Amino acid sequence: MLTTRRLGPPNRTDRRRSLPLKRVAVSPWVPCVMVAGLLACGGCDSNPPVTTSTSTQSTDPNVLTEVFASDRVVNGIVVTPGGRRFVVYTQTEGRGVQVAELSPRDGRPIPYPDQRWNSTRHDPRTGLVKANTIRLGPDGALWIIDGGAPDFGEPAVRGAARLIRVDLTSNTVTRVYPISQKSTSFIDDVRFRGNMAYLTDAGSPGLISLNLQTGLNWRVLDGAPETTARRAMLGGGGRELRKPDNSPVKLHADQIEVSPQGDVVYFSPASGPIFSIDARLLDAPELSDKATRNVRKFADFGTIGGTAMDAEGTLYVSDPENHRIEAISATGNHRTVIADPRLAWPDALWITRDHRLYIPAAQLDRTPGMNSGRNELQFPIRVFSVPIAAGPAPNDHN
Predict the structure, then answer these.
(1) Total number of domains constituting the chain
(2) Rounded distance, CA 17 to CA 106, Å?
C-alpha cells in the first residue's frame, strides 16, 4: 500500500456523493504456472529467481464490479461483515478528510471516527498526521496507521507514528500505540497474529513488531537487504516511477501478510521481491539476530501495489505494471485472477466474508509524486470487486 504527495488545493468537496454502482465485463483471466519453493535467501537479488511462468488464454470470463467511484484518491477500503464501508484517502489532491465511513444511504464520506481526528496533519496531539492504512482486525475493531510524517519522504513528526484502535460499536478511539520511529520513518502497513501486530516501515527499511498487550515494540530486519528497496518501481506499461526532481521512487518495506495458520509472515519492498520468515522469530527482541539469518525468498515478483491473504493461504498480489491481480498459493502455484486496463495501480486489497476481493484502482503512478511532477490522474477514482474462491484468513479479520 502506497501514498503520494498532494497536488495542491482541492477542487472537489469531501462529502460528494459516490457515483452509481455498475458491472462491467472484463478480459478473460490468464492462468500461469510457477516453479516455486521456499528457497534460502542471502538477501541479494543474485539468487536464482524463485519463479518462472507461462500463460495460456482461458475462455472463462470474469466480471469486475464497480463498487463506488470517488472524486478524491482512495487507496484503501475496509468492508465489515455487517456491510459498513470505510476508506482512506491519500490527500494527493489536497487536505481533507483522511479516514471516512461511507454513508449506507448515499455513499457520502463521513469523517471517521470524527471530524477532530481528521482536522490536522501536523500535530499528533490533536488528530491524524497522515492516515496511511486502515484494517479491520480479528477483534472486530478498525485499526488506523498514522504513518508519522505529513507525506512520504518528509521528516517524521515526533510522536506521530501510531497504531490506533477504534471500537466500531462506540465509534471511539480506545487505544493508541506509539510506534518507535526514525527521522525518515513512514509506517506503512500492519497485520495481526494473536497478541502481536507486525508493521512495515517504508521510509526507514525494516519491520516493527508490536506486543498489543504491553505496547512494547521493536525493529526487526532493520536496514536489511530484504526490507530495502533495490529495484526500480514500475507503473502502468513498465514506466519507471520518478519523483518531481526526477529521482527514482523508492519505498522500502511495504507489503506484509500472515498465513492463516499464523506460522509464516510474508513481506516485501514496494518493488519486490516477496520474502517469508517464521513468524515466531518476530515475537521477541532477543530473536532479531536469528530472524536476520532466516529470511527466505518466496516469489520473485516485481512492483506491488497491495496484497491480501485468504483463508486457504492464497496470497493475492496486485501488479500495477500490467493492471492485474495475481494469486500465489502457499506451495508456489501462480495464476492471474483478473487483468483489466481499468485496474490502474490496484492498491490495498481487501477480502470479504462473501468471497469477494475489493480492489481500489488508485492511479498512484499518475500522481505528481510518482510521475516526475506531472498530474495525469483521471477522475473518478474507482473501487472494484471480483469474486474469489475463499473468504479472509480468520486470524487477519472476520
Answers:
(1) 1
(2) 6
398 lies in some domain: no
Q: Is 259 within the bounds of a domain? A: yes
Q: What kind and span of H or E run contains 291?
A: helix 288-292
Q: Which residues, at least 6 apart from 262, have a Cβ–Cβ distance to it below 8 Å?
A: 193, 194, 279, 395
Give pLDDT tens digits for 19-60: 444 443 333 333 332 323 322 333 333 333 344 343 433 324
Residue 139 domain boundaries: 22-387
Amino acid, res. 349: L
Q: Is residue 215 part of a domain?
A: yes
Report pLDDT digits (tens) over 309-361: 999 999 999 999 999 999 999 988 999 999 999 999 999 999 999 999 999 99
Report if residue 137 sits inside a domain. yes
Question: 385: which 3 cell numbers?
Answer: 470487486
Q: Domain containing 175 — which CATH number?
A: 2.120.10.30
CA distance linking residue 282 with residue 258, whole number of Å? 12
Cα–Cα nearest to 356, from 398, 385, 380, 326: 385
Radius of gyration of the chain (CA): 19
